[in-house]
User: What shape does this take?
Amino acid sequence: MKKLALFDFDGTISKQDSLLLFLRFSVSKSQFFLGAIILSPTIAFYFLGILSNHKVKESIFRYFFKSISLNSFQKICSNYAEQRLPTIIRKKALEKILWHQAQGHQVVVVSASIENYLEPWCDSLNIDLLGTHLEFSEEQLFTGSFRSPNCYGLEKVNRIKAQLKLSN
Assistant: This one.
């Protein structure tokens, strides 16, 4: 029976939220601040409990990335994973991940973060990933929607149960 080690990413493996850092990495300062202003009512509705985490995050990605090609988006994500993600990784979390791997445990990151930017980092460490999926059209353009529910809260439990054989 193989042991399973599950890790959240934002605030557990990382020292800070990776989404804001990703946005700052991906777009210019002026685009970022204009987007923050335009999206502020949407974000306020989230904090008031009117909009779900899923809807707000999807709105953010729609605003900044709708119609971007998968190839272009993946280049941004790979560069982000290589250049910025390592700067926010907690040393103790990485040590614990490596310890689990040395023990032969299966390590899985379960995160609300977008898989496109976490996957290169996880792949580099041979870590499995359950995250949020963006939807791309047949023409390989981002539709502005998520292909799956945001992997947040109870959805993390649902993903774990659906994709991992916990009975093992």
About this structure: The mean pLDDT is 95.
